[in-house]
């Protein structure tokens, strides 16, 4: 899958995704640091990249409805330290081995993934 790593996510996350065979670019690598959410969502859609972020604004399905783009992954680690973020990304990788984000919203915690499907507004 193709991912864009938001500027609020440590760059090592791109490396973890790449090591698992995914195409991952950071916002900084594309000189998009400081871009407003709407612009970032539009660019992700144009590029066919799933946005990986810590920004809860992207979990608002009224503003970013499932199916309106390639999808969003909102990471929710217990703490924003490297170990917890890495554990949360490892849970994401487990989920990606079974399914694709495919326009959905994934809320990823260190022990679980909640999916808001583009076909409904109910969590799976």
Q: Which strand order spans the largest sheet, edge to edge or round the barrel?
A: 2-1-3-4-5-6
Relative strand content: 15-25%
Shape: globular
Straight-line N-to-C gap: 21 Å
Structure description:
It contains three helices and six strands. By secondary structure, the chain is α/β, with parallel strands linked by helices. It has one domain. A six-stranded mixed β-sheet has the order 2-1-3-4-5-6, with helices on both faces. β5 (105-108) and β6 (113-116) form a beta hairpin. The protein is globular. It starts with a strand and ends in an 8-residue tail after the last strand.
Task: Describe how the helices and strands are arranged.
Elements: E1 2-5, H1 12-19, E2 23-26, H2 37-47, E3 50-53, E4 72-75, H3 82-98, E5 105-108, E6 113-116
Parallel strand pairs: 1-2, 1-3, 3-4, 4-5
Antiparallel strand pairs: 5-6
Quickly describe the structure.
With 124 residues, the chain is of the alpha/beta class.
Q: What attributes does this structure have?
A:
single chain, 124 residues, alpha/beta, six-stranded mixed sheet, 3 helices, 29% helix, 19% strand
């Amino acid at each position: 899958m193709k991912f864009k790593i938001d500027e609020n996510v440590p760059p090592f996350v791109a490396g973890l995704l790449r090591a698992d065979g995914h195409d991952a670019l950071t916002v900084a690598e594309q000189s998009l640091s400081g871009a407003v959410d709407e612009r970032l969502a539009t660019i992700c859609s144009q590029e066919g990249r799933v946005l990986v972020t810590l920004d809860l604004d992207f979990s608002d399905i009224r503003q970013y409805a499932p199916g309106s783009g390639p999808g969003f992954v909102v990471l929710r680690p217990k703490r924003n330290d490297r170990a917890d973020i890495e554990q949360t990304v490892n849970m994401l990788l487990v989920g990606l081995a079974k399914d694709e984000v495919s326009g959905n919203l994934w809320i990823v915690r260190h022990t679980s993934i909640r999916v808001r499907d583009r076909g409904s507004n109910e969590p799976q």
